[in-house]
Amino acid sequence: MTKNRVTLILLIVLLASSCSLSKANKGYRGAIVGNWILNDVTYKGNSGNFKSVLFNDVTDACFKGSQWFFRNSNSTGSYTINPGGECMEGTRNIRWSVNEKGDGVNQLQFKFIDEKRNDVSGGYGYRLDIVTLNEQQMTLQTNTSVEGEPITVVYNFSRSY
């Protein structure tokens, strides 16, 4: 009976530790939590002027100055597009997490949810590589292509208090 109990306890500990976040992942999550402003969106790796629709939502110009909020307790948050021009203003709710890519790169991933925290995108979401993350700044990027040519979209945030 004692041997079975020890085996059961070891199995529970092993299961609990396999489901927990790594120390690095917890650090990234903790650093992301809070309020951010998306200062600008830039493009690397290709020349020319770009006008793109980001996250299947609005153009890159509409994202400039957008306010982002990341809550830790239930991994939800939002971003708010400011009014102006062709921008469809308003708040979009998200569920977010940090993904360990496995090659030393961590990613911020998110998908859209409604007010009741239900997925509204059919499980589809977005992943952005975390390039810089500290108390004041966050730089994210994602690789894509334009007319078959590779390009990197860079998102520069600053902490908002």
UniProtKB/TrEMBL annotation:
Coiled coil: none annotated. InterPro entries: Lipocalin-like. Residues 32-140 form the Lipocalin-like domain. Residues 1-22 form the signal peptide. Pfam families: Lipocalin_4 (PF13648). Keywords: Signal. It comes from the Bacteria. This is Lipocalin-like domain-containing protein.
